[in-house]
Specification:
By secondary structure, the chain is of the alpha/beta class. The protein is built from 21 helices and nine strands. Helix 5 runs parallel beside helix 7, helix 11 crosses helix 19 and helix 20 packs parallel to helix 21. Bound molecules: iron/sulfur cluster.
Length: 483
C-alpha cells in the first residue's frame, strides 16, 4: 500500500461522515502556523514578510489544540515560520496525536537532529545502544552527544518528546540539490543538515516526507535527480507544488532583492510545462498527491479551487480566503466558511481567474482537495487504485547519486564560494566556482536568466555573495583591507 492503512482509513471515514451530515464544505488539512519566527529567510517565502510586525508572537498551546478540534481536520500540517522554534512543539504534537490526528511538521530541517536527540535522551535504555552506535558511526550524532544521551539528567528523561509514529511525519523542505537548495534558503550548509536529519530520522524509525516548491527557474532534470536521491535515503513520500506570487513574497522580491517577480514565479502555462513529467514521477516515487491533482498540474484536466478544505490558522485567526492570499482573518472556522464568498475565487471554465490574484495559482492547498474529494466514478477508482497500489521501491543508493546531490558548498561550489575566495585571495585570484552553475546535471533552460551574472540554477537570492563582493570591491577601491 502506498500510504499507511490506519491514517488512510481515518481520512476516508472523515470524508464519508461529513458527506452523511450533508456538509458541502469541510476541512481536510489544517495549516497550523503557531508562529512566524524562522531561523532562515528563504527566497519566495511570504510569511516572514507578511507577518513581520508580529514575528515574535505565538499562538498559545491550548488555542492551537482548540482550533484543531474546532475544524475537525484529520491532518494537521504544523508550519510557520519554523515550527521547531515553537517553545511547546512537543506538547503540541502530543496533544494533536491525543486528538487522533495525523501530524506533519513542515520544517527546514535545521533543528530536527536536536529534537531527535531529545527523544533518544528521554527513551534511552540498553536497547538503544546499537542504533546509537550506528548514529555515531555515521557521524549523525557526535561522541559527546551520545554520552549526553546515555547520561541524560532526570529533566531530560521526563521531557515530552516527538516520537516515531505512523501518525507523524517530519516534512522537510527541500527545493533542489545542494547548490540550488542552499541558494534558495539563502544559507550554505542547510541541504547537508537536511540530509543528515533525514538519515537520522530513518534510522530511528520516523516517517519522513519532503516538500518542494517549483519556481520558474527550477530545473526539472535536477528535480528528478533530487527525488532519486531522497528516495534512496528512504524518504516515505514527497509533496510538490508550484510557487505562487502572493503579495508578500512579490513585495519582498522587488524591495529586498530588486528582482521582478515575473522572473521567479510561474504562470499556469509554465507550471504545466514544468509538471509535464509529474505523473511519471508519481509512478517512480511516492508523490503525496492524488492522481487528479497530478493530472491538473500536467495540464490534462481542470479543477475548481477548494481552499476551504485546507484552512490556515495563525496568530491573527483563520486566514481568508486561503493559504496564500490574505483579505482578512476570522475568529472561527465556521465564521470563515459562512462569510467568505467562495464563488469569487479560483478560475472559471475558460481558465481565467475569478479573482485576478487566482489567475496563475495551481497551489497544492487550493486544488489538491478538489481531486481528493471528487465523487466522480473515475476519480474514485483512480484514487483508490493509487492509494492501495504498491508503493514504488526506493531508488537504489549509489556514490554517483550522492556525488551529484552534494554539488554545492560540500565541494567548494556553494553560492558563497566566489565571494569567500575573493575575500581570502583578492578579486584577481577569485575562481568562478559557480560559473558552470554549480551543477553537473544537464539543464533544461538554455535561457537561464541568472547565468550571465554568475548565479545558477534555482533562482534564489545572491545577496550574501553580492554583499561580500561589494565589500571586497569597495575595499580594493579604497585600499583598505576587506573585513
Ligand atoms: S485559486 Fe489559489 S489564490 Fe485563489 S483562492 Fe484558490 S488557493 Fe487561493
Amino acid at each position: 500500500m502506498r500510504f499507511p492503512l490506519a491514517p488512510t482509513a481515518k481520512i476516508a471515514r472523515h470524508i464519508v461522515q461529513n458527506r452523511l451530515r450533508g456538509r458541502a464544505k469541510f476541512a481536510m488539512v489544517l495549516q497550523l502556523e503557531p508562529l512566524h519566527t524562522c531561523n532562515l529567510t528563504c527566497t519566495g517565502c511570504g510569511r516572514i514578510r507578511e507577518y513581520s510586525t508580529s514575528i515574535k508572537d505565538v499562538v498559545p498551546l491550548d488555542k492551537c489544540l482548540a482550533v484543531a478540534a474546532e475544524c475537525e481536520a484529520p491532518m494537521i500540517s504544523i508550519c510557520g515560520g519554523e515550527p521547531l522554534i515553537y517553545p511547546r512543539i512537543e506538547e503540541l504534537v502530543a496533544g494533536l496525536h491525543a486528538q487522533g490526528r495525523m501530524v506533519y511538521i513542515c520544517t527546514n530541517g535545521v533543528f530536527m537532529r536536536k529534537k531527535m536527540r531529545d527523544y533518544l535522551a528521554a527513551t534511552y535504555s540498553a536497547a538503544t545502544e546499537p542504533v546509537l552506535k550506528d548514529l555515531v558511526g555515521q557521524k549523525l550524532v557526535s561522541e559527546a552527544e551520545a554520552d549526553a544521551i546515555r547520561n541524560a539528567k532526570p529533566e531530560a528523561r521526563a521531557k515530552v518528546v516527538i516520537r516515531p509514529s505512523q501518525w507523524h511525519y517530519w516534512n522537510v523542505h527541500v527545493d533542489g540539490l545542494e547548490f540550488t537548495h542552499d541558494l534558495i534558503v539563502e544559507r550554505e550548509g542547510v541541504f547537508k543538515e537536511c540530509v543528515a536529519a533525514i538519515r537520522m530520522a530513518k534510522l530511528l524509525g520516523y516517517q519522513v516526507a519532503t516538500n518542494t516548491t517549483v519556481y520558474k527557474e527550477t530545473d526539472v532534470a535536477e528535480l528528478e535527480e533530487m527525488f532519486k536521491f531522497l528516495s534512496s535515503l528512504g524518504v516515505d513520500g514527497h509533496t510538490i507544488s508550484p510557487g505562487y506570487d502572493y503579495d508578500a513574497a512579490k513585495k519582498d522580491m522587488v524591495k529586498r532583492l530588486g528582482k521582478d517577480p515575473k522572473d521567479f514565479f510561474l504562470t499556469r502555462d509554465l507550471t504545466r510545462q514544468k509538471f509535464k513529467d509529474v505523473q511519471r514521477w508519481g509512478e517512480m516515487f511516492t508523490i503525496f498527491g492524488t492522481p487528479g491533482y497530478l493530472e491538473f498540474l500536467a495540464g490534462r484536466r481542470e479543477l475548481a479551487c477548494s481552499a476551504w478544505a485546507v484552512p490556515t490558522y495563525n496568530i491573527r485567526g483563520w486566514k481568508a480566503p486561503c493559504y496564500v492570499m490574505t483579505d482578512t482573518h476570522y475568529p472561527t472556522y465556521q465564521d470563515m466558511l459562512g462569510k467568505v464568498d467562495w464563488s469569487r475565487f479560483g478560475v472559471d471554465e475558460k481558465g481565467c481567474g475569478r479573482d485576478p490574484r487566482c489567475e496563475n495559482c495551481m497551489m497544492h492547498s487550493g486544488f489538491e482537495p478538489s481531486a481528493a474529494l471528487s465523487t466522480g466514478l473515475r476519480d474514485t477508482w483512480v484514487n483508490f487504485r493509487y492509494n492501495f497500489g504498491s508503493r514504488p521501491a526506493p531508488y537504489p543508493a549509489s556514490t554517483e547519486l550522492e556525488r551529484r546531490a552534494f554539488n554545492g558548498a560540500t565541494v567548494g561550489k556553494g553560492h558563497m564560494a566566489e565571494a569567500k575566495a575573493a575575500l581570502n585571495h583578492g578579486l584577481a585570484g577569485a575562481r568562478s566556482a559557480y560559473a558552470q552553475g554549480g551543477n553537473d546535471l544537464p539543464h533544461d533552460h538554455d535561457h537561464h536568466p541568472a547565468s550571465s551574472n554568475g548565479a545558477s540554477c534555482g533562482s534564489g537570492d545572491t545577496s550574501q555573495r553580492d554583499e561580500l563582493l561589494a565589500k571586497v570591491q569597495s575595499a580594493s577601491k579604497t585600499g583598505l583591507p576587506a573585513s
